[in-house]
Amino acid sequence: MRSIRPSFTVRRGRGASRRTSPALAAVALASALALTATACNGDDHADGKPTASATANGTGDGKIQIPDDIKNKLKEHGIDIDKWKNGAWKNWNRDDWLREANDFINPIIKGLWDPDRMRGANDPDKDKGVDDNDISGDQGVTDPTPAPVKAQAVRPPYHTSAATSGKVFFDSPEGTMVCSATVVQDPAHPGKSNLIWTAGHCVHAGKSGGWYRNIAFVPSYNNAAKSADQLQNAAREEVAPYGVWWADGAKTSQQWIDQGGETGGNGASYDYAVIHVTPEQGNAGKSLEETVGGALPVNFNAPAVPQVRSITATGYPAAAPYDGQLAYQCQDKPGRLSINKSDPTMYRIGCTMTGGSSGGGWVETGADGKPALVSNTSIGPVTSGWLAGPRLGEVAKGVYDSVSKKFAGR
Q: DSSP string covering 154-191, please?
């Protein structure tokens, strides 16, 4: 089994998983810090002499204005602001790869995610995987493998047909990576949410590493569904028509941090994350929800798997035969997949989407007739054919509520 994670689909490892109390969800909230700089075409670092602006909320007046607590956090980890924005973030030494729960620091580097760099985040040649035989656990709560369901291209413009979907870009030690994500409602800011939902492995490497860097969300990426050839010389506004939104807060489960591995299914039942975002250009008054025109509610009490009639998964698959530029969907009645007896049973559907679709939302129409997010893409087999996603319960709600409350007064 492989993880349907960033486009290179990093393998997850087998082994004994460590049980963590559902009450102990990780407090993994970012320090809000914004830096502005000018990035060159496709470069991994900003120009040598950028103009910097750093504040706690992503805006500034051209002067460095960093709260003392953030200054201290940066100093603790030897992070020099000017060096960081000029490429020091590419240092992935163990001591520099922040792992601790409160150490997700994601300074904005304005212009870093240009069209070339976004396209370069979907390299299917890095796709790796292992056999379906890596599935372990209680087969008594695992239903038969579903028949493959061919992913269908989402009809453009995506802003009309899949307004809440988009792509998450980030940097890891292996390079520039990509996942999928969904705009979700924020109980602290009704109608004005800045929250997105994705997979835990799209923000944190699990037990073998720490937080990824330069995490940013692009809603309705490639809104007009242009081909890779047509995007070769595309302006940033064409691939990111609703802007680039940087993570200034993120949280995943402590279970994923403690157990998540590169192959197999360790931590998969808790493989989700909530990210709070802020516009790269500074706060223009509109929230992400207002910008895209909607946000999905999250259902933490979805019916048991046998009672769910149909789930629709959306994502931007990047591993072959896809190229990461287009959005796709699969619709199927879910079955059950058990990785470990002690972990919650996962949803599983037939779907041919591949790496890059990780973190994409799974939506069910509830009893009230309205759509709600009930899961996200987490894992799948080497050869594709099906996807599995965690069921959202107490731990997931804790992750969600913590991020919402953190930004409730802002």
A: PPSPHHHHSTTEEEEEEEETTEEEEEEEEEE--TTSTT
Output the tens digit of pLDDT for each of the chain's 410 residues.
555 544 433 333 222 223 333 333 343 343 333 332 222 222 333 333 322 223 333 333 333 345 566 666 667 776 777 787 788 888 887 766 777 656 787 888 889 999 999 988 853 333 333 334 444 443 337 999 999 999 999 999 999 999 999 999 999 998 999 999 999 999 999 999 999 999 999 999 998 889 999 999 999 999 999 999 999 999 999 999 999 999 999 999 999 999 998 766 889 999 999 999 999 987 668 999 999 999 999 999 888 888 889 999 999 999 899 999 999 999 999 999 998 888 889 999 999 999 999 999 999 998 788 999 999 999 998 778 999 999 999 999 999 999 999 999 88
Quote the tokens at residue 345: 């049973």
Q: Would you call 374 helix, strand, or coil by DSSP?
A: strand
Distance of CA 313 to the CA centre of its chain: 14
Structure-token pair, residue 2: 């492989």
Residues in the chain: 410
Structure tokens at 320: 């072959």
Determine the 3-state secondary structure of 324 from DSSP. coil
* Token pair for 88: 């020091």
User: What are the angstrom distances between the C-alpha of 278 and each of 6, 52, 245, 341?
Assistant: 22, 17, 5, 39
Exposure of 282 by Cβ count < 10 A (0-12 exposed, 13-18 middle, 19+ buried)?
A: middle
pTM tops 0.85: no
